[in-house]
């Protein structure tokens, strides 16, 4: 299944529907960019993770991979 990009519209809708938060479109777009980066990092690191891994190791894996290039 092809993943869809995170958009400002999605962030704006979720902020309103799930959290009742007013958010400007500018801020929603900024957050969408950050969420997309995080999603990409998770996708790129998934082969290093196991279902039974300690969640704290996941953050350490992302930090370790931060400087590596593909």
Q: Would you mind describing this structure in some detail?
A:
The protein has 70 residues and is mainly alpha-helical. It has one domain (8-64). It is built from three helices and no strands. The protein has helices spanning 8-19, 25-45, 55-65. The longest helix is centred in the middle third of the chain and has 21 residues, at 25-45. The protein is elongated and about 35 Å long. 4% of the residues are buried.
What features would you highlight for this structure?
63% helix, mainly alpha, 3 helices, elongated, 70 residues
Terminal-residue CA separation: 22 Å
Shape: elongated
What sequence of helices (H) and strands (E) makes up the elements?
HHH
Determine the mean pLDDT. 86
Strand tally is 0
Looking at the chains present, what oligomeric state does this protein adopt? Answer: single chain
Largest sheet: none
What layout of secondary structure does this protein have?
Blueprint: H1 8-19, H2 25-45, H3 55-65
Helix pairs in contact: 1-2
Q: What is this entry, summarized?
A:
The protein is built from three helices and no strands. It has helices at 8-19, 25-45, 55-65.
